[in-house]
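>> received
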Amino acid sequence: MPVPLSARTWESLLAWYFVAVWGSGFLATKIGLQHAAPFTFLAIRFAFGIVCLTAMALVLKPRWPSSGRELGHVIVAGLLMHTVHLGGSHYSQYLGLSAGITAVLLSVQPLLTAVFAGRWMRERLSAAQWAGIAIGLAGVTLIVWHKIDVREATLGALMAVTISLTGVTVGTLYQRLHCPVVDLRAASLIQFVSNFIVLAPLAWFIEGAVVRWSWSLVGAIVFLVIGASILAVNAFHTLMRRGHATRVTSLIYLTPIFAVALELLMFDVVPSAISLAGIAITCLGVAMVSWARVPKLTA
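>> returned
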């Protein structure tokens, strides 16, 4: 008779699944952007997601938002986390910003989350956790150091990645604060529809909705929709509901490690000694954030 997983083990599996898929998503996105411009690629991605989630909703019959207010919160959170975040990060690479700089800038999210969580949710961090955040960011910088080319950092690309960083940070905390009990399955479908409604006109009028179809594009879309946008995002929000916001978002520091590993397996890109040192430092930083004792708030 199989032994049921403990809550701690289940949360660990969710965390590692999120990290692995999120890290792999950088490569899948790189493949997709070779066949379609960012808004067009995202519109196709969300259209396929709507088909998948509609079928799931018909079978599982999730609980829908009970009021217009709750529905509005779900839509706002979705637009921030998807249209703003993904649109910005995709366009930063489309405009020439290297994957290295993009990864480093987006890895500031745990630091911003710590600041905002302390302000909005009264979550306090210990000195060891603040140190862990800084150490984790330094480790990520070392991991991708060999890819950084500052000459590619145009003003437009930097603005796009800044918008992306703001969207995912605010959107993640917004959903946790305003949608604490919403059914994540229903929320995902609502958010996919909302994002498609926004992105489809942008794809058509700005980019001409040009797509060069191929099996690699289809594979990238399937992986990003089912593996990342549906399963990984829901895993992330499940962890956010159960844990300290800063601890959960510190997992983002680990995603470049999987990107480096996949580059080695798929493209024979051997990580440098600096990258390996960065991996070790990143793991230390995440451990400090996750395991440190959280100080209690005083009334």
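>> DSSP finds twelve helices and no strands in the chain.
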